[in-house]
């Protein structure tokens, strides 16, 4: 494997709207991010991925872009973005932006022109079909519920949107459209960006010609992924994009890739892959159901372990995964992967270590480093997220009571990750001096950055130690490039694995509240990290306390 500048880095995702508000309007902004760069540098992160801050009507919180060349005034100005890039460089940090090119906003100039002249140049930037009374072009269901077809205003046509109706899909089959995308990517890379996180990219290739499929719900529609599984030829688009953009700048790119076929992995993240890396979603999609959130199967510690190991085995040394516990589209990881009732400082540290030491690039989502948790919901009226509102209705339609449907919504809502960052125990968690756009989690008085900065035993301090271990010259080669081998894989509620390079490390965690004994393969040289004050041993047997995790040099 050719070594690249990003291999040994640690990434951190920022959701700008909820990170830090500098002007008191209740919305996080780019100057707020700049004010926290020293905090992030102190933590040890190198790469900052910003969720979209382009100009947008925010129908899907910025993933509906109306101008790819401008910053939304809510978040600041282009001068602020340029300053952020410069200030990050002074700290040897890289800025990634979101690349959202499966769709744009219906308020984008291209779409407005398509409405004016659907048979002209810009009509071919989208997927348009003639409208037929009482009949849709296909029966695909959008990710946010309902049909993927909507009437094109002022015309006798309909347009395709696999996400929100205000997010018309771009027609990647059109080379003119692709040229516009590459021009914009290079424009940003010329400004000094370190690269991009590529949003929803698998959706750019549709199965042609369009057709309907067997319905999977009473609405007569089918899951959009049914169509995507039949799509082939995406490599033509992705290879072209890589060669025309990222490759020329040695830029880092990480793909949001779902449903990839095993034989395609080398094409995606191999030596000359379309992307530098792609996210591992094996844990996040576990237990999901075609019927909806209400039918999802909870993930157990053993499920979590097997998901991680399955991904690691599948990738091997082909390339680098980007490992996550949570992101802006998921509930908080500690509320999801730690059994109900067991969420505490120690169990949060265990989850951190087990994920962070996997082979690949660790991505930390804002607030993860202090163990932020899901937010309690008392009413569906408190919800902002469009997908949560849809799933709440799906649950009601399936016969759940309002109380039961709300519980489902609270468990999986994307709002859980989007509540304001908890900086301190001051008003609004120190996020804003105004009224926050989304309610603050009431536990901010006990879970916040300020208190954890001063506590050597805090979750944040543990994350800082994990990052320092990854960067320690003595162990870096092993942690970054070493092979991963599961250990005691079949032991219930125990997750353990080797990292083998020029050193041999053993990560071993007791993924339950009850004490558990684990036999070591031999003597160890050193305890590199331990989330408990001590380590109880009896010969080669470790007696691990509830949720104890240790990293040993063998």
Proportion of strand residues: 15-25%
pLDDT < 50 runs, ≥5 residues: none
Overall mean pLDDT score?
A: 97
- Please list the strands of the largest sheet in the order they lie side by side: 1-2-5-10-12-13-14-15
Query: What is the straight-line distance between the termini?
Result: 26 Å
Q: Indicate the overall shape.
A: globular
Helix content: 25-40%
Number of helices: 19
Structure description:
With 554 residues, this protein is an alpha/beta fold. Helices cover 29% and strands 17% of the residues. The protein is built from 19 helices and 23 strands. The strands form six sheets. It has an eight-stranded parallel barrel. A hairpin with a 2-residue loop joins β21 (536-538) and β22 (541-544). α13 packs parallel to α18 (459-471). The longest helix has 16 residues, at 175-190. The radius of gyration is 23 Å and the shape is globular.
Give structural attributes.
23 strands; 5-stranded antiparallel beta sheet; 554 residues; alpha/beta; single chain; globular; 8-stranded parallel beta barrel
What layout of secondary structure does this protein have?
Blueprint: E1 11-14, H1 16-19, H2 30-35, H3 37-43, E2 47-50, E3 54-55, E4 67-71, H4 78-90, E5 94-99, H5 109-116, E6 128-130, E7 140-141, E8 149-151, E9 157-160, H6 175-190, E10 195-198, E11 222-223, H7 224-228, H8 234-244, H9 246-249, E12 252-255, H10 265-269, E13 277-279, H11 301-315, E14 320-323, H12 333-337, H13 345-356, E15 361-365, H14 386-397, H15 402-412, H16 415-418, H17 449-453, H18 459-471, H19 476-481, E16 483-487, E17 494-500, E18 504-510, E19 516-519, E20 526-530, E21 536-538, E22 541-544, E23 549-553
Parallel strand pairs: 1-2, 1-15, 2-5, 5-10, 7-11, 10-12, 12-13, 13-14, 14-15
Antiparallel strand pairs: 3-4, 6-9, 8-9, 16-17, 17-18, 18-23, 19-22, 20-23, 21-22
Helix pairs in contact: 13-18, 14-15
